[in-house]
Design goal:
Layout (H helix, E strand, L loop, with lengths): L1 E4 L10 E4 L9 E11 L1 H8 L15 E6 L4 E5 L7 E5 L3 E3 L6 H21 L7 E4 L5 H12 L4 E4 L4 H9 L4 E2 L8 E6 L3 H9 L1 E9 L13 H7 L2 E4 L2 H5 L6 H12 L11 E2 L3 H9 L7 E4 L1
């Protein structure tokens, strides 16, 4: 089968098209013919060796696919090696999806959708009426977080994005305003995947009792110290978030995912999907993602 693999750590240039053996499902696993594979920013960290959990080399990246199970069901699944024509998933890590649901939209709901859901519900513990700021508001997580914050009762939703086009998209998705730091008013919740200077500015923009949730470092900035005395002065909190251990908790996967699927079916949640890339152009997909040339969910199609 055709797959994408890297044999050494580095930038997008290390991603190589290979002819790999088809995976063999073990007990309680299912073989999936891949219709589409999702690309996540974490994949770029995995490729360059900076991910929180380093993988052994060589490695086929990719943590999510839409495809057809051996029994004919169309499924959305968490996997370990998704950049390929076939993948294996645990039976507990897949959900059947409708035939008419766009593969890119379904993939947007898995890693990005569950991230956005848990950022607001689990990490920030959003309360009705609070003001939420979403950084990278046109990205895969951000575009869903803007909509979910409104769905979950936020009083105001402010969007931060890097270009006028991305700011317009965030407004179209329901943000009340596009903002830059320092904010016009202090915010109760700020969701940040950028880090660096933006993280530092965001921290100073928190209202008393506010929560800055850090779930990435796309700026690839160095260590950002957080002075406890500064947190005390601000009377605020910094919350770290990583999806992988979060999903290990009972009820953290299937219930939230089914809620996201239902909201999408009802038209209350609109996943944004970038123009798909052929599987063999995974390198270009990573280049565009790192250069912030993409909007919404990035997808590879075998």
């Amino acid at each position: 089968m055709i797959a994408i693999r890297f044999d050494r750590f580095g930038g997008p240039e290390v991603l190589t098209v290979v002819d790999a053996p088809a995976p063999r499902p073990g007990p309680d696993e299912v073989l999936i013919d891949v219709e589409a594979a999702g690309v996540n920013f974490a994949d770029t960290h995995q490729t360059d060796g900076s991910y929180l959990a380093a993988d052994q080399l060589p490695h086929i990246p990719g943590s999510e696919v839409v495809g057809r199970a051996e029994d004919g069901r169309r499924v959305l699944a968490r996997v370990s090696h998704g950049y390929a024509e076939q993948a294996v998933a645990k039976k507990s890590a897949l959900v059947e999806i409708p035939e008419d649901l766009d593969a890119g939209a379904a993939l947007a709901l898995l890693v990005q959708g569950l991230t956005a859901w848990h950022l607001l519900r689990t990490a920030a513990r959003l309360r009705p009426g609070e003001t939420v700021v979403v950084h990278s508001a046109a990205g895969g997580v951000g575009s869903l977080a803007v909509q979910l914050a409104r769905e979950f009762g936020a009083g105001r939703v402010w969007a931060q994005a890097s270009t006028p086009e991305k700011r317009r998209l965030a407004l179209d998705l329901g943000a009340d305003a596009a903002v830059v730091h320092p904010l016009p008013e202090r915010a109760d919740v700020i969701l940040d995947a950028v880090g660096g200077e933006l993280f530092d500015s965001a921290l100073e923009s928190l209202a008393p009792g506010g929560r800055l949730v850090s779930y990435g470092n796309s700026a690839r900035a160095g260590f950002t110290p957080v002075d406890p005395a500064r947190l005390g002065r601000l009377n605020a909190a910094v919350v770290g978030f990583w999806l992988r251990p979060t999903l290990a908790a009972e009820g953290a996967f299937t219930g939230p995912l089914r809620e996201l699927l239902a909201l999408t079916a009802e038209g209350r949640l609109r996943p944004v999907v970038h123009e798909p890339y052929p599987l063999t152009e995974a390198r270009r997909a990573h280049e565009d993602l790192l250069a912030r040339r993409t909007t919404g969910k990035v997808v590879l199609r075998p």
